[in-house]
Structure to design on (326 residues):
């Protein structure tokens, strides 16, 4: 649907604008922690699989908040410069549900998105940099 | 900034690129002009040129709006969620989700519909992929992966320019500034760059 101008958006579109975006359902996982089992976590894993944070694509992801999901979360948080908690905190969920480009952030298991920084950079700061 | 694995780019003998629109979409000249403007952002800072042609089959870059499963293994998901995707060089394919409420002109930030998405903002980002850029962690950059609805971000950031100029070099006419209207840039927290 194209709108040459914002004033051209018809009323019926405005009335339907409250419909849920595809990833809004992930908000129900706020506060979910490693070790928990929640219905729908498999879909969140599919999200991370799609954008490259979980490399393998099994036929069925489990509903467990397992090590694989925690690792994906940490990598995601690092790429988006969020606090690297490995948990589904509010800040991370707000980022996850935002509209975005469909291209993956991590390709073939490698992310250069955040200058290839490892998580150790955030915990120890052992990276020498030169400002310019 | 980042590149695709293997750093694919358009070769030196293909720097004058053509683009064409999926005929079935029947896009208006006004919509096509949005892409012309988006291509110009990248041609301003590189030696690349972009010319619209009628022949869809022979164009270097093809642009189309699709809904749902459109045959490339990356189905679109309706309003919001995934907005668009594009392929690395030299595929040239740029696909946008036809279910979005695309705003072609006007101040999208004042749209009364919460799902309104600025077409040019997404087009500039996807063209970056077509040219070989991956995603960036710099929130101010065009190549940052996400964009909030009712947001306009069309000017290349330093991060985008550094990345694309590593691939293609600098436009000899580039004077070091692309921002003609600073109000079009999103505000930034000013993260330090290294």
């Amino acid at each position: 649907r194209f709108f040459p101008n914002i004033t051209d958006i018809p009323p019926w579109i405005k009335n339907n604008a409250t419909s849920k975006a595809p990833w809004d359902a992930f908000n129900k996982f706020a506060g979910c922690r490693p070790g928990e089992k929640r219905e729908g976590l498999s879909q969140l894993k599919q999200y991370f699989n799609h954008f490259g944070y979980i490399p393998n694509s099994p036929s069925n992801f489990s509903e467990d908040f397992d090590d694989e999901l925690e690792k994906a979360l940490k990598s995601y948080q690092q790429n988006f410069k969020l606090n690297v908690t490995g948990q589904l905190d509010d800040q991370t969920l707000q980022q996850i549900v935002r509209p975005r480009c469909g291209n993956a952030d991590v390709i073939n298991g490698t992310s250069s998105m955040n200058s290839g920084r490892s998580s150790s950079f955030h915990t120890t700061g052992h990276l020498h940099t030169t400002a310019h | 900034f980042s590149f695709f694995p293997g750093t694919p780019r358009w070769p030196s003998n293909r720097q004058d690129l053509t683009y064409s629109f999926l005929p079935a979409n029947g896009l208006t000249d006004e919509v096509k002009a949005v892409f012309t403007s988006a291509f110009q952002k990248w041609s301003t800072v590189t030696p690349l040129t972009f010319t619209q042609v009628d022949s869809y089959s022979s164009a270097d870059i093809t642009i189309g709006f699709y809904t749902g499963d459109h045959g490339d293994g990356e189905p679109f998901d309706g309003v919001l969620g995934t907005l668009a995707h594009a392929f690395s060089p030299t595929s040239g394919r740029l696909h946008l989700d036809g279910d979005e409420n695309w705003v072609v002109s006007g101040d999208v930030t004042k749209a009364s519909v919460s799902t309104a998405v600025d077409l040019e903002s997404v087009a500039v980002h996807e063209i970056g992929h077509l040219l070989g850029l991956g995603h960036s962690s710099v929130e101010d950059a065009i190549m940052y992966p996400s964009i909030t609805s009712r947001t306009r971000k069309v000017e290349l950031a330093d991060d985008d320019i550094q990345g694309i100029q590593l691939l293609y070099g600098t436009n000899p006419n580039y004077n070091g500034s692309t921002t003609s209207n600073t109000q079009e840039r999103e505000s930034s927290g000013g993260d330090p760059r290294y």
The radius of gyration of chain B is 16 Å. The longest helix of chain B spans residues 29-45.
